[in-house]
From TrEMBL, chains A, B, C, D:
Binding sites annotated in the UniProt record for FMN: R125, S126, S127, N237, A238, G281, K296, P297, T298, S299, S300, R322
Gene Ontology CC terms, in alphabetical order: cytosol
MF terms in GO: chorismate synthase activity; FMN binding
Chain positions recorded as NADP(+) binding sites: R48, R54
This enzyme's EC code(s): 4.2.3.5
Function: This reaction introduces a second double bond into the aromatic ring system.
Pfam families membership: Chorismate_synt
Family of this protein: Belongs to the chorismate synthase family.
Key word Amino-acid biosynthesis present: yes
Name of the protein in its database record: Chorismate synthase
Reactions catalysed, as given in the entry: 5-O-(1-carboxyvinyl)-3-phosphoshikimate = chorismate + phosphate
Length: 355, 355, 355, 355
């Protein structure tokens, strides 16, 4: 067990605060002999990087990753891979307000309640900045599962969903919202702009699909593939819900409606539906693994909210500073990374037991 | 890591198959000196026990638990507590059909794909029978967190939800559905009866509330309280979704709508709302911990479904035998147990680090 | 982490006290498809079983193991294997003396200091009886590493060592001491008899050799093969020292004397010596893995020893009852089991990372 | 589980190779609120630092540690503490010989056998340089157990032992050998000088004592205090043996000779001896924890040794370069660090379960 590690045999540990000198991850258990350089990781960090459009926080971080260990002559050696990302744009501002009062919805009060005090600069350890470490670790994980293709996208912002019939994966990279439906992307431009200008924020739903996962990955009963995915995704900042396959929708169906009938196929069965989201009994079935993740609206808003100070006095707080109007957008590469990390770990667990 | 263990410092390991001689759990890390006997565990097993109404499977299992270790003179000793429940009603039936073909929605195909073969009698290890072990372990966990009260209930069956305004916790034990709204309970009687008679099945949503959790439990970042709850609940048989607090609903809100404002209170802040479900930054806030769990409809239905045989031939299968028409109902004590197990583990983790 | 579990991916958990109804182990992570029945385990339990000669405790325990889960149609299914051994000969005696005062050298005082009280009947959880669970688990492990042959023996009793030149593995089973040197076995007969009659006890050194371990097993840096073996063996009751290869002897050598030169061989190098005990850098080299384990003399002796009571009063105590005059003898199958368990775990860890 | 992490709730992960840009450790689970700066760590690194006398390797490394996270306003925050030490003196030399042939006694062959290739520059990950990370992590651990005083020393070099009657802890810092007996220190000067000049090397025994450990620490049965110490110390480079208390000497004693009688004391019992080394049943007794660790002679010697090349050809190898003539000497601060790390982890585990 470890508070800041994740995974069983492909395991990563992250460290670092929003406004410290750097953040990073140590990836342990990576198979040897894989070609790896910073160039394999950087594109994923770039996708998550802030400041790329007006729809994300304006903090300017190049998020340049450095590999400090575990690679020799361009290949992984099987020893721990230390990844470091320097913090560059820790704006020297006055934190006295955040230090003195709790921002509702943030981790401020909970951290103080647990640890007795907290690093209040930019949210410290609870900042979404930490997710850059996950994305970097996830980029390494992808190299271990080349048979798998992971694609995430935003499915809804502020309750405005894409039209599933218009889903086009090729569109995801064509707009600042990771939106697979160009009409929705257009609507969201105004939606998010309005929220941003109003100092408000919006929730979002991110969906993710992993194809190429063979049947048999998953470690029942207490490291089930779906349970591990739920753990990984619920642990992302601002996430409040996770669904596999049909999710809450399945709870409203009958057994007949929810059945994924099977027919003989060329390589394993052909499934006539995928309500299961590619997982049965905690084990992959060979169908695409499908999941959905609910991001709450960013808690940092300009509207004053009632709160209390560290001393327990009544107060109001407006969260100024540079914030994402919809934190779910930048959640897309993070969800992808967490899915990659879980699948990689399960692949290695599988071959530990099965060979 | 372990495939069949759960928890970091309060850790349990389960074993056993549906039709083997027994099932059980080993609970490790329990504090010493707690009063414990079978009588502390049995009521929770009785709540989960099948065959108590026509709305659950008719398999007759007394589910009598035996404590085989870890207790001396009526008190826990701090050593592992071995709990065993004998299987009594393994009906000797003909399993040739299930052995030969895969039941869609079940773990059959996935287990075969992973392990090469499977114990097909009653679902073997993938049977919901295993959850009796969780409930027994959860009963022990409750003794470690007497400050916490955990209550779960069914919130919806087949899409028919309770009226939140009619919520009455005292009603939960008064009907066979763990339903807090007597009107809904009445409707569900016909709903589930119809499904049962038709050989069909229904999904359900289970909600759970834990009060008395102090602010500060949770181990960020990769053993966050919400992530651990999601892991625990997504790992229950038939579960396809987990929400904390506002869940997917929060994804449709603005920051203002989702804010849980704070006012000075007697003992910590008074929160004006609980969209967060009692958890911020992965740490409890002192508010009630709230979560919702989606159960899919039982996959075992009498309607024939297309499937394939072990040899890859096309076939049809009807799942005869004794099955729950709505597996979510008996999920209620299981959800409670998993929540108890997570909270206990987090309490001990908290005092490991904080003292 | 778990207090009562061992192993990373091949992991077992033990439970049970000396005088409870039973003891047992849950073996998790076992590969599927291995032929397994009680008959594969029983011989190893029989080798450890007490009461077989006058040189061990006279407690009569048949140590019949039952497999309660994880096996179907005679093969392991990949799910947890629950092993149970009933306690039969818990002699109903008066424990008031042991309950009231601490036996020097035993865990009595330490358990009370930690847990506040203890199960004093026969030593409770700290009894060497628990090692039967390890031996049972180890028998399962051996099935996973058929390429490896593990042989342990007693090398010295009470300071009287075998003559290495007379080592004959075939002799180990021919005497009640697991002694590979028939002359030493003869001497030990009188030595142990004298100690037994005097109500005294003797320490012993157990050696173990594992051949067939391929080069490459071991998980540096913090799950090194030698570190895991040291962990496994130091955790056996009464063990106070562990050596790999040259051990403490190597500390008195020069680099030249300690070098294991290599020459080209048919299948990997031919080593000209094995000071390393088959392990370099925490990884197996393909040479036989060699280790030595020091067992202290049984603390239970008839000579009165000064002690204190639970209330802190001065007292004398003589440990009556049925005890091994040399607990190291029955340590032989336990050392073998622990070595098998470590090697199996490392084999699976190796293939997790390397494939 | 993790290959490169150690500890259960106070857990550290190390990374880095001898000739990479840096090495480091991430310390997780540290209690919040402890005063911590680089100045708390540096003295321990300085004690281990090479190049301080002619009796250690001449590699010049300032070993300046940087704290990159987990500390705010001079106090630990409870979040992971990232420690980094830059490698400065990676002498650009010709490694072709080491790359092509295996140095007997080193990890070279085993790493190649496991991973298929290796970072051969200075031993890569298997270099003793990694122990600087342990020492840094150990310095943090010491802050968590201020009640404990840990002192290690060299007890013997090349078979020449100190005179226990002359033991003077104050002398340990007065000579380059961490030797508590000034006469032995004088003898060792010539002994090690001779070995160094001859291009040879010597083994050593390091002893360690931890006072102030209260009775009750230790997590039986599979995280016993003695087993954890054995694991921690056997995992140090070049270690081949670990003893607790009487160790192998106890195996030659009778029960009477080995008994640690108890008398009433002011605060717990007064023990009349400490053959147990402060640990019974895997739990501390309140006596000083005593252990001994055997270091083999450095494998790097100038005398040519027979070996094979990567291609399996016969060859001779002389290990040139800068090496410790007696690696056990610099093992002293490493043993202290590992003992501190184990005790800290056990303290936190203890309070997790006991409160």
């Amino acid at each position: 067990m470890s508070f800041n590690s994740f995974g069983h045999v492909f395991r990563f540990t992250t460290w670092g605060e929003s406004h410290g000198p750097a953040i990073g991850a140590v990836v342990d258990g990576c198979p040897p002999g894989l070609s790896l350089s910073e160039a394999d990781i950087q594109p994923f960090l770039d996708a998550r990087r802030p400041g790329q459009s007006r729809f994300t926080t304006q903090r300017q971080e190049p998020d340049q990753v450095r590999i400090l260990s575990g690679v020799f002559d361009g290949r992984t050696t099987g020893t721990p891979i230390s990844l470091m990302i320097e913090n560059v744009d820790q704006r020297s501002k006055d934190y006295s307000e955040v230090a003195a009062a709790y921002r509702p919805g943030h981790a401020d009060y909970a951290y103080d309640a647990k640890y007795g005090f907290r690093d209040y600069r930019g949210g410290g350890r609870s900042s979404a900045r930490e997710t850059a470490s996950r994305v970097a670790a996830g980029a390494v994980a992808r190299l271990v599962i080349p048979e798998v293709t992971i694609t995430a996208w935003v499915e809804a912002i502020g309750g405005d969903a894409i039209d599933p019939a218009k889903f086009d994966a090729a569109e995801i990279g064509n707009n600042p919202f990771f939106c697979p439906d160009p009409h929705a992307a257009q609507r969201w431009e105004k939606l998010v702009d309005d929220a941003r200008k109003a100092g408000s924020s919006l929730g979002a739903v991110v969906a993710c699909r992993a194809t190429g996962v063979p049947a048999g990955w998953g470690a029942p009963l207490y490291a089930k593939l779906d349970a591990e995915l739920a753990h990984a995704c619920m642990g992302i900042n601002a996430v409040k819900g996770v669904e596999i396959g049909g999710g809450f929708g399945a709870a409203a169906l009958t057994g007949e409606q929810n059945a994924d009938a099977m027919r003989p196929g060329n390589d394993g069965p052909t499934f006539l539906a995928n309500h299961a989201g590619g997982i049965a009994g905690g084990i992959s079935t060979g169908q695409p693994v499908m999941l959905r993740v609910a991001f709450k609206p960013t808690s940092s808003i300009l509207t004053p909210v009632e709160t209390i100070t560290r001393d327990g006095e009544a107060s109001d707080i407006r969260t100024k500073g540079r914030h994402d109007p919809c934190v779910g957008i930048r959640g897309v590469p993070v969800v992808e990374a967490m899915v990659a990390l879980v699948l990689t770990d399960q692949k290695l667990l599988h071959r530990a037991q099965i060979g």
